[in-house]
């Protein structure tokens, strides 16, 4: 009889009986893919509630694994109850990400310090305005291939002087010297600046970078064919922390400005001249002789 009572008193413990926030959301659900989490969410009402709690606790929201196969509705489920997001990685959300789906996330998460909207084609400068107004701790921003970005949009983004350190504007064709000059005027702590394929960029913008970004570590201006040796020389002279320079397809940038940077061990994507010529360039750089 005693054995029968013990068996009768046993309690069956299921997965959902394990503490949600302390165990499941912290140690189990983070190992599942976004697709698997949405499938789990559809199993039952309790699993839906569990996954929603997990989504509400995320510090990083990333849809990269789904890219353009995601949807605005799913994004609303993923982000709608979260007020603690610090990193928003939405790269390659070409068609489904719109201002209407992005703005609530930006407005509800003032602690955002990293945003990646690379190749997101269906949003507008209204999103940049919202980021500028709400995200005062923004340090990392990528707008690569966002051809809708305008100079006015950039001004609305930076007018509150975010502490930006990494900015990628590669392929933002509509930007000009004035937009880049304003960027570095308001955000002087930039360390990594990527401006590839902004075809209207001239020496004026890069000279502003040289004078206003003394802590610059990487500058990438691939395909900016209007640039000359003059601006690169000034970058070399004024940006003492420079570690990497990308100037491929900049036909007017030569060893006259690159030689002294090579002598400083700055990584440059243009091939170095032959060994003999390279030693000669370094020798002249050491003597501070212009080529």
TrEMBL record:
Superkingdom of the organism of origin: Eukaryota
Keyword Transmembrane attributed: no
Keywords per UniProt = Ubl conjugation pathway
Q: What positions does the domain F-box/LRR-repeat protein 15-like leucin rich repeat occupy?
A: 112-259
Gene3D superfamilies, from UniProt?
Ribonuclease Inhibitor
> Is RNA-binding one of the keywords UniProt gives this record?
no
Q: What is this protein called?
A: F-box/LRR-repeat protein 15-like leucin rich repeat domain-containing protein
- Which source organism does the UniProt entry give? Batillaria attramentaria
